[in-house]
Amino acid sequence: MASAPLVHYHAPQTRSFAIRWLFEELGDPPHETKMLNMKKGEHKTPAFLAINPMGKLPTITHGGVPVTEVGAIAIYLADLFPEAKLAPAIGDTARGTYLRWIVFNHAAIEPAITDKARKIEGGFPSSTLCYGTYDDTVNALAGAVRNGPYILGERFSAADVVIGSAVRWLTLFKLLPKKPEFTSYLERVTGRPAFKRAMAKDEELVQALAS
Q1: What's the pLDDT band for 1 if we cut at 50, 70, 90?
Q2: Do the strands 65-68 and 6-10 form a parallel or antiparallel pair, or are they unpaired?
Q3: 52, 85, 118 — which closes off a domain?
């Protein structure tokens, strides 16, 4: 099935960068990148809404079947191209840790940061929140990247693309507290050649849009 048409619907400077980066880590397998200009509302056209009713990026289609959400796409692509060795195989005990942290991004990190930024966390008991508390979430994230160099220790995986992208964006927008764990982890993941290639490709898109 990896030979079926694979399309990445993408816009630079969005969450979709994580999947742009992931494709580079996978060795840039054959796929088509379809750039959507969000300022022109191209992500809200009937054609795209038929693929992703949320009108959100990233989105991929494989053989015409849509996959949405960064974590789901990362899991799907890493399994689709096992030769890249970005996902522990089923039966490998490391897969539990790998899946845990990919899901943690959407289940805890983004909700906790969003609620903190909107100043609404205190209005709900922690037992009702998917992430518990903001401090618990940040401390858990720091613990995950502290011992490294990656989420699975010495082994880089798609989990680092998901978590690394989240830490990068949240740091850029000053939504994470300054911790040496986050600083050193970012230095490691953004120093990877695949990350730099993905950044260069996105910078070309930004320049093209501006011209």
Answers
A1: low
A2: unpaired
A3: 85
